[in-house]
From TrEMBL:
<feature type="domain" description="Rieske">
    <location>
        <begin position="43"/>
        <end position="152"/>
    </location>
</feature>
<keyword id="KW-0479">Metal-binding</keyword>
<dbReference type="Pfam" id="PF00848">
    <property type="entry name" value="Ring_hydroxyl_A"/>
</dbReference>
<dbReference type="InterPro" id="IPR017941">
    <property type="entry name" value="Rieske_2Fe-2S"/>
</dbReference>
<keyword id="KW-0001">2Fe-2S</keyword>
<dbReference type="InterPro" id="IPR001663">
    <property type="entry name" value="Rng_hydr_dOase-A"/>
</dbReference>
<dbReference type="InterPro" id="IPR015879">
    <property type="entry name" value="Ring_hydroxy_dOase_asu_C_dom"/>
</dbReference>
<dbReference type="Pfam" id="PF00355">
    <property type="entry name" value="Rieske"/>
</dbReference>
<dbReference type="InterPro" id="IPR036922">
    <property type="entry name" value="Rieske_2Fe-2S_sf"/>
</dbReference>
<dbReference type="GO" id="GO:0016491">
    <property type="term" value="F:oxidoreductase activity"/>
</dbReference>
<dbReference type="GO" id="GO:0005506">
    <property type="term" value="F:iron ion binding"/>
</dbReference>
<keyword id="KW-0408">Iron</keyword>
<protein>
    <submittedName>
        <fullName>Ring-hydroxylating oxygenase subunit alpha</fullName>
    </submittedName>
</protein>
<keyword id="KW-0411">Iron-sulfur</keyword>
<dbReference type="GO" id="GO:0051537">
    <property type="term" value="F:2 iron, 2 sulfur cluster binding"/>
</dbReference>
<keyword id="KW-0560">Oxidoreductase</keyword>
Amino acid sequence: MTEMPFKSLPIPNDWDRSGLPAWTYHSQAVFDLERENVFLNHWQVAGHVNDIPAPGDWLAFDLLGERAVVMRGQDGVVRAFHNLCRHRGARVVDGVQGHCRGAVVCPFHGWVYNLDGSLRGAAQPTSFGGIDRARFGLKPIEAEVFHGFIFLRFHPGPQAPVATLLAPYEADFAAYAVADLLPVDSPRWYTDLPVNWKSVRDVDNEGYHVPLAHPGLQELYGRDYRDLNLDDGLHVSVGYFGDKPGRGWSVRHYVKHAPDRPGLPPHLRRAWTYYGVFPSTVFAFTPEGAQFYHDLPISPGQTRLTGRTYRWPEESRQVRLARYLAARIDRDTSVEDQQLTIWSNESMKSSAFDGFYLSDHEYGLRRHHDRLRGLVPVMQLATAPAEAEVIARNKEMLGRRR
């Protein structure tokens, strides 16, 4: 078995095998606390710099009532702004991604912004009695780039700068030449599920279910699959393929056509690797392609699974075929996970549900829940408070720590 460069946190001999209480999956008040303390103040990936290669290219990213636009300026710098005209709050760009020719023009009243976010001019400026353009530029959003991937954060939060946070991934991302990735022609994909976002994470944060629930993955790499739990909400999963030819059509042909990239270190050459970032982002790399995906909450009972897919430059016909076959395997896996997520989420409202009882193989799931309890301590309560009291109880529990 190939040696990985990551050291997984040791699993205690005697640890609490329970998960979050079921009530936290359908409480609107808990969802409101997660909005402020888990999502808006933690790093989110919006895309890759090669999604917006030219000045005026932009990407939109919406999350829980906040709207961002990530844009490349005339100077080549990538910046993020609130997608909010300073006049009446209209979206200054609409859609998933696009291009502005030299300036951003609000479609409501025609205010014009430079590509660096500064206000070039308001329509009929004398009607405002004189306007200080320096005061009315697009509001910036904190943004950082790590090996080409663009991260943004709507509010200041507890996570370190992206380069510090993801330092354990530095060597692998460099080996994969992640900064050189090019977008596959399709835009951001998404699927909406009638579940709480935590149910999606519960399925994705452990590999205990792979042998039975994912026959394709089990055939491809399940014999060597492992999960590694790191500090700071980082999680690595890896599976090695190629020791067997495979029986299913997609797996058999993928193993045959998957490229051998001799420039990669041994632990990456014949591997599918997944790099998790709290709260809900995963980067997935294979020898022929890459993607990121995350589950973004919409409401307590609805979650959007979304992401983007990438390829490496100068893709040969064989590599393109391998990427197609990998996508078939990944598509089947996603459908299987979606059904598991729905079943798991349904159980949270059943009177017969007694909570999780976790295996050592699900220690990563428990670590994720512990991190949520640390940010939203009311989740520690086994019995739900009255819904109207949840936020006050959370504030009280936070106060006890000080």
